[in-house]
Specification:
Layout (H helix, E strand, L loop, with lengths): L13 E2 L2 E2 L1 E2 L10 H14 L9 H21 L7 E4 L2 H13 L8 E5 L8 H10 L2 E5 L9 H6 L5 E7 L11 H10 L4 E4 L11 H4 L3 E5 L10 E5 L1 H6 L10 E5 L2 E4 L13 H17 L1 H19 L5 E4 L8 E6 L4 H10 L2 E2 L1 E3 L4 H7 L4 E5 L6 H18 L1
Helix pairs in contact: 1-9, 2-9, 10-13, 11-13
């Protein structure tokens, strides 16, 4: 896997006179040259609006846009491209489902079920739609390892639940949820499930047909693509019944002052001019991941995570937060009597980039009784030398504060 490091220009630089060690991919991953080049190629040669012009550039732009939709459909094994909706990211995808699918079904006798492990983007949209409909938001518990207590969540499923929305992988702790087991239990009760796949899609092979997820959402910038790109996968029969979330150009077939006829799937949910250059880059990122192979990436990152968790235990005063039996790509930690922001600042002086704070997962931090953590997160371009630099940097943090 080390051969792929050279494909990422951003990590081949120096920060504060030290080689950059980038361990913040859970926040935003770096882009390979092939993605950067595809965005530039599109901008230089094909830039025009999609679906609306008969001239050559518009045709080229549309071809790039729809090829990416097909590539993404293949990548996650959707039944067809009608099930692939382009959004600005995971956040918009969740909001779309909250307002278009859930809001018409919610009332004071209904509820949404999520877990204590969720990112704010999988909490706040549900709080808002529950407030709008006077329905309730139920929270399934987690344990001290940072895992959803699956049996407790399943026991909370009844006829009043309109939707379950859970993360595939925790952004704060790296815990892998038992999503397939939860989906099977939910479907026995006639309850659909949305899976937040923002932290899983760049690290493991995702097959939405095998999972049988009703909705699966993720962001481009977590998977080596440009920011402002994302996907809502939804089962076609569910999407067909949902009203548009946003309105404007391209999501219509006919507009009259007496009424409007909406476009077919997937365009019904894609109002306005999209981030076409970003979508071009997203298509290139999917191609790059498929070339390497998700199984190879998963194996490489598992070995690295095991090494990182083992080596971090050698740092004085460290407390590893989140010790799930099944984890991906993330290790959060604290150092005794040292604020996470101080840890991050001193590491940055040594060229080591990590994330500090609550990671948009304040309820998780509250559960562990802390204000925040330092979080090191991995991607395919990391290696053991990066981990060694992190550990050496943490020894330096302890020296400074001693």
């Amino acid at each position: 896997m080390d051969a792929y490091r050279k494909d990422f220009p951003a990590i081949n630089q120096s920060i504060n006179d030290n080689k950059l060690v980038y361990l913040d991919s859970a926040a935003s991953s770096q882009m390979p040259t092939s993605v950067i080049d595809e965005v530039a190629r599109y901008q230089m040669n094909d830039h025009a609006n999609v679906h609306r012009g008969i001239h050559t550039l518009s045709h080229r732009a549309t071809m790039v846009y729809e090829k990416t939709r097909q590539d993404l459909s293949d990548f996650i094994n959707a039944k067809n491209t009608n099930e692939i909706i382009f959004t600005s990211g995971t956040t918009e995808s969740i909001n779309l489902v909250a307002q278009s699918y859930c809001r018409p079904k919610l009332n004071k006798n209904k509820k949404i079920l999520i877990s204590h492990l969720e990112h704010h983007s999988n909490i706040v949209p549900w709080q808002i739609v529950c407030e709008q409909t006077q329905s309730s938001l139920e929270i399934a518990p987690i344990n001290n390892k940072g895992e959803i207590i699956t049996e407790d969540l399943i026991s909370m499923i009844d006829e009043s639940v309109v939707l379950i929305s859970i993360s595939h992988v925790s952004n704060a702790l790296g815990s892998v949820s038992e999503v397939k087991k939860i989906i099977q239990a939910a479907h026995k009760n006639g309850v659909p499930v949305l899976v937040d796949g923002a932290q899983s899609i760049p690290h493991i092979k995702v097959d939405v047909e095998e999972l049988n997820a009703d909705f699966y959402v993720f962001s481009g910038h977590k998977m080596h693509a440009p920011t402002g790109t994302g996907i809502l996968y939804g089962k076609e029969d569910l999407l067909e019944k949902m009203p548009p979330y946003k309105s404007g150009g391209d999501m219509i077939l006919e507009v009259k002052f007496t009424g409007t006829t909406y476009n077919d799937l997937p365009y019904k949910f894609e109002a306005g001019t999209p981030n076409i250059s970003g979508i071009a880059g997203l298509g290139a990122a999917v191609g790059y991941l498929r070339k390497i192979g998700m199984i190879n990436i998963e194996s490489h990152e598992k070995n690295l995570l095991d090494y990182m968790s083992s080596e971090l235990k050698n740092v004085d005063g460290i407390n590893l937060i989140g010790n799930a039996d099944n984890k991906i790509g993330v290790q959060s930690f604290t150092l005794e009597n040292i604020h996470s922001h101080d840890i991050g600042t001193i590491l940055d002086h040594q060229g080591v980039a990590i994330r500090t704070g609550h990671h948009c997962a304040m309820p998780v931090m509250e559960f562990f009784g802390i204000s925040g953590t330092a979080r090191a997160s991995l991607a395919l371009y990391n290696n053991k030398e990066d981990i060694d630099c992190l550990v050496a940097g943490l020894h330096k943090v302890n020296e400074v504060f001693s």
